[in-house]
Write a structure and sequence with these properties.
single chain; 268 residues; alpha+beta; Ribosomal Protein S5, domain 2; 21% helix; disordered N terminus; Ribosomal_Su5_D2-typ_SF; UDP-acyl_N-AcGlcN_deAcase_N
Length: 268
């Protein structure tokens, strides 16, 4: 199955079943603002994330042009995920979207401003190359139950995969199977590089924040040790390849069910 046909298939109701998570939709409890260097353009960009009403979802606001992170707006681009609508592009959105999904932020407006004067394209700051900066920002501001304009809360609906989906391009592939919990298995083979690039890693559940042990466990110390020694040092040791790609898998598509979604109503 090609990439385009797989995306169309995933949007079909025959492949997914929408169910209530038994919790209410959330948004952030205040505004988040971060600025930083962008990866591909090398410029500086500012991101402001604002609370949003229930049922609105997550969307980017670039020069008053609203772009939802839907597969309908994904544009082919090397080494990053790019959203494009009506000629306006937002690039390198994968780490931010991963953090919002993993932390349970269902609704928010993401205002992105390029400080280099580009008219039709902007890029989200890269920071350390992971979702860590965004996760910590969400933790600092906190979450709250989102309500619509009438003050009513809404249930959180998530899709469950019914049939397997397989996408391949050249010698790379991604396969998704129905399963009662989230399990991500990832492997990579760069035979010309160090041996650590030829190992695989299995993640039993998506780990949020600073990879707290209570949030899940790695089945391979290749990646876990990278976070323990620090991201900058880990990149120099060769663990970056695994970490970044698992982040892409978690945040680039439509909503997925996380085993331990963070919810602001939890008291435990």
């Amino acid at each position: 199955m090609s990439v385009s046909s797989a995306l169309n298939a995933f949007k079909s109701s025959a492949l997914i079943s929408w169910k209530s998570l038994g919790k209410l939709q959330q948004t952030i409890a205040g505004c988040i603002e971060r600025s930083g260097i962008t990866l591909h353009s090398g410029g500086v960009a500012r991101v402001k994330i604002w609370p949003e009403c229930a049922g609105v979802g997550r969307y980017f606001d670039f020069r008053s042009n609203f772009i939802h992170p839907s597969v309908d707006y994904v544009q082919e681009s090397p080494l990053c995920t790019t959203l494009c609508k009506d000629g306006y592009k937002v690039r390198t959105v994968e780490h931010l979207l991963s953090a919002l999904e993993a932390m349970g932020v269902d609704n928010c407006r993401i205002e992105v401003e390029g400080l280099n004067g580009e008219e039709s394209s902007v890029e989200v700051p890269i920071f350390d190359g992971s979702a860590k900066e965004w996760v910590e920002a969400i933790e600092q501001v906190g979450l709250k139950v989102a309500t619509d304009q009438g003050g009513n809360s809404c249930e959180k609906m998530i899709p469950f995969l019914i049939e397997p989906v397989h996408v391949h391009r050249n010698d790379s592939f991604v396969a998704a199977f129905p399963y009662p919990k989230v399990q991500i298995i990832y492997g990579i083979d760069f035979p010309q590089l160090e041996v650590c690039y030829r190992k695989g890693v299995s993640m039993e559940m998506v780990i949020v924040g600073k990879l707290r042990e209570k949030a899940g466990g790695w089945c391979s110390n290749v990646v876990k040790e990278g976070f323990r020694v620090g991201l900058s040092k880990a990149r120099r040791r060769g663990w970056e390849a695994f970490k970044s790609r698992i982040s892409f898998m978690a945040g680039d598509g439509r909503r997925v069910k996380f085993c331990k979604d963070i919810w602001c109503g939890d008291t435990s």
